[in-house]
Amino acid sequence: MVREGEADFLMKGKLQTADLLREVVNKERGLQRGGVMSHFGIFEVPSYHKLLVLTDGGMLPYPNTGEKAQILMNAVKVLIGLGYENPKVAVLAAAEQVNPKMQESIDGDLLRR
């Protein structure tokens, strides 16, 4: 239905992620339209006043900086489609400052520019 434009989102229910993704990335029947495909999750935390979004929880295990930029733009595009005019984003790494030994922090610094 998503491929035919009859649905806007694909939601995972009670099935194995690998089973779902196998069909999503299928070259003949899947959803690939060029570019980087990424995961998008929306979370409601009862003690927080805003919805939180986490993108790419494992669809692309080791993205390079360019792929990370595309993942970020995928999320922004979805949020704009949902009515958010100016989504705020954060790129997370396990360090507070840029660490030349930690590629994630270097990528985060590049992506914020």
Search tags:
globular, 113 residues, alpha+beta, two-stranded antiparallel ribbon, 30% helix
Describe the structure in your own words.
The structure is a single chain. With 113 residues, the chain is of the alpha+beta class. Helix content is 30%, strand content 9%. It has 3 helices and 2 strands. The protein has helices spanning 17-24, 65-81, 103-111, and strands at 40-44, 51-55. Strands 1-2 form a two-stranded antiparallel sheet. A hairpin with a 6-residue loop joins β1 (40-44) and β2 (51-55). The longest helix has 17 residues, at 65-81. The protein is globular, with a radius of gyration of 16 Å. The N and C termini lie far apart (37 Å). The mean pLDDT is 89.
Query: Helical stretch count?
Result: 3
Instruction: Give the proportion of residues in helices.
Output: 25-40%
H/E element string?
HEEHH
Mean pLDDT over the residues: 89
Low-confidence stretches: none
Number of strands: 2
Main sheet specs = 2 strands, antiparallel
Portion in beta strands: 5-15%
Distance between the termini: 37 Å
Which geometry do the CA atoms define? globular
Structural class: alpha+beta
Rounded Rg? 16 Å
Strand numbers in spatial order across the main sheet: 1-2
List the topology elements:
Blueprint: H1 17-24, E1 40-44, E2 51-55, H2 65-81, H3 103-111
Antiparallel strand pairs: 1-2
What does this entry show, briefly?
The protein is of the alpha+beta class.
